[in-house]
Amino acid sequence: MPPPTARVIVLAGPSGAGKSRLAERLALPVLRLDDFYRNGGDPALPRISSGPNAGLTDWDHPDSWLPDDAMAAIRRLCTEGRARVPVYDIAHDGRCGEQDLDLDGSPLFVAEGIFAQEVVPSCHDEGLLALALCVTQNPAVTFWRRLTRDLRERRKPPLVLLRRGWALMRAQRDVVGRAVELGCLPVHPDDALAAVHELEPAHG
């Protein structure tokens, strides 16, 4: 692999914690890792095995996502400065097209998503990682932000979203723990902003 000309800032954390909002505030190119979900008809999709949503696709399980495709895009962005990436429509459980992501010479870019922590070890080992953060807030705040966003965007039926949100709120500690285990630093969004701004001078 050619030497990198750019490095990635990974933003992991629970759904609704503020990753996308933080990425916008950073004003850097953004790779949306949630666009690497499997299509809804993929037979490899995991299913929820128990509880009120039993039988439905488990979109919060890492197996619902394509980490190899995501890493391939990160490598191209780091070494070539551009990549062809998918566009995913969560409301319809599938890809609705592709787009070109061009770093336009930026030495840093952001990769954010609910499975972002899964790419941290590979990015670190391959010398592509600038910083890995797990954005986290009070679970009740995260629950409300996630629910209002998902209802506004009509991602799933309201009852499914409410049940999913409750389950995710209970699992938030485990999500953060997994991200820390894989190399992320847990931070509040405001502290994350400061950490990235401290990093930027070193990368020009």
Explain how this protein is built.
There is one protein chain. The chain is α/β, with parallel strands linked by helices and 204 residues long. It has one domain: P-loop containing nucleotide triphosphate hydrolases (Rossmann fold, 3-Layer(aba) Sandwich), CATH 3.40.50. Helix content is 38%, strand content 20%. It has 6 helices and 7 strands; from the N terminus they run βαβαβββαβααβα. The strands form 2 sheets. The chain has a 5-stranded parallel β-sheet, sandwiched between helices. Strands 3-4 form a two-stranded antiparallel ribbon. Helix 4 crosses helix 5. The longest helix is centred in the last third of the chain and has 24 residues. It is globular, with a radius of gyration of 17 Å. It starts with 6 loop residues before the first strand and ends in a 5-residue tail after the last helix.
Query: What is the number of helical segments per DSSP (H or I, 4+ residues)?
Result: 6
Derived structural class: alpha/beta
Q: What topology, given as strand order, has the largest sheet?
A: 2-5-1-6-7
Q: Architecture, CATH level 2?
A: 3-Layer(aba) Sandwich
What attributes does this structure have?
single chain, 204 residues, alpha/beta, Rossmann fold, five-stranded parallel beta sheet, two-stranded antiparallel ribbon, 6 helices, 20% strand
Blueprint of the fold:
Layout: E1 7-12, H1 19-26, E2 30-32, H2 67-80, E3 82-89, E4 94-102, E5 108-112, H3 120-125, E6 129-135, H4 139-152, H5 158-181, E7 185-187, H6 189-199
Helix pairs in contact: 1-6, 4-5
